Automatic annotation (TrEMBL):
This is ESAT-6-like protein. Gene3D superfamilies: ESAT-6-like (1.10.287.1060). It comes from the Bacteria. Pfam families: WXG100.
Length: 65
């Protein structure tokens, strides 16, 4: 999609083109923040999953005695 937008921008001029360029830049910035937040969520879920597995193993050892 970004490639198509770049092609469109190269053939477009005027106030509407400038407004579109600004909006496209804002879109890319927002997209980057979303990707960063998703990566952080993924990392947090991985850590939580590991903690649950560790607790489950500890609980299983307590009952195995």
């Amino acid at each position: 999609m970004h490639g198509q937008l770049v092609n469109l921008q190269s053939s477009w001029s005027g106030p509407a083109a400038a407004a579109f360029q600004s909006l496209a830049s804002e879109w890319r910035s927002t997209q980057q923040r979303v990707e960063e937040n998703l990566a952080a969520i993924n990392q947090a879920l991985g850590a939580a999953g590991q903690q649950y597995a560790d607790i489950e193993a500890t609980n299983a050892r307590m009952f195995a005695r």
